[in-house]
Design brief:
The protein is α/β, with parallel strands linked by helices. The protein has two domains: 231 residues, no CATH class; 106 residues, 3-Layer(aba) Sandwich (abc type-2 transporter like fold), CATH 3.40.1710. The chain has 13 helices and five strands. The chain has a five-stranded mixed sheet with strand order 2-1-3-4-5, sandwiched between helices. Strand 3 and strand 4 form a beta hairpin. The two termini are 38 Å apart. Pfam families: ABC2_membrane_3. This is ABC-2 type transporter.
Amino acid sequence: MSFRMLTIANLKMHLRNRSSLFWHFAFPLIFMVLFGLIFSGGMTSQIRVGLVDTSSDFDEVFNTAFAEIDNATLVEGEKDELIDDLKNGGLDAVIVLDESTAANSLIDVEIFYDQTQSLTGSMARSFIISLLDQIRMQAFAVPELFDVTETSVARETLSYMSFLMPGVIGMSIMFSALFGTSYPLVMEREKGILRRLRLTLVTPVSFIGAKTVGLLAIAFMQAAIIIITGILFFDVQIVGSLWAASFVVLIGCLMMVALGLLVAGLANRLESVDAIANSIGMPMMFLAGTFFPVDGAPRWLQTIATVLPLTYLNDALREILVTGSTLIDVSNTLLIIVAWTVVFFAFAIYLFKWEVNYQK
């Protein structure tokens, strides 16, 4: 009963505080919208389609059909080369024709498109289906001509908003858990609440657990709001499992709560919380691949990024949400998150203080 009441009380404390609401929800959305408007660059109406070169009459038919359409460009080439262009974002779809099947049956047509780009990918797919039907009617005048097979190919180079959204989720979880744990604990220590807590029936595990559950609820709300914003306003396509992403949010929040407990142990007074928490959170926000990939950064910065806990939370969310990876695929990343959680909890327990040490 006491655990439930403590959980509700902690959650209400966060949700009734206007300043807390801003930092929990408005702050990450402002970053997402601002960076999205600056760097997303909008959507183009030009459709770029690759056609595997077969040096046959069909190539000429497709070139003629495409020549009559203003917003479509046809690029001929080898299959592997065109598929690579699709993965790198240079094409919206690729068509592969197998004319060897035309003698006795329908012509096999395989369409490759990118399901992570919901607007351009779907537009290109619909455009090609319509064009094939147009060719069938005008050039050959037969009831059926093509047997179409569709294959989804995930781009290796994500759109900026697809890259940004998981990073904003990770950043919001980090700051909410980091400050939402350390600041109240240090304040309660200064006011003597922790000292009085030792005389009650409430155990430290229940007390910390209630704070953690409240922050987990906020983390899930943050993730839901950011994902909905990405889908509705920036055309981000969610490919992976939301249940898998929820599990990553869960262990990611536990890791950041453990880090917040560590900060509370390091900070003897309330005035030091901001300095310590910001000195930890701000470098992670910019160096952990939240807003931009770190691949092009100097090697020493890339090395730093590989040891930052937020890097692994961002990577796991990014792999699951926008590239369709499973929990098994990111198991190594999840193990690193768990390892950081254990390390943070171990040091937090060692440094935990019930009362203010006035000698410092």
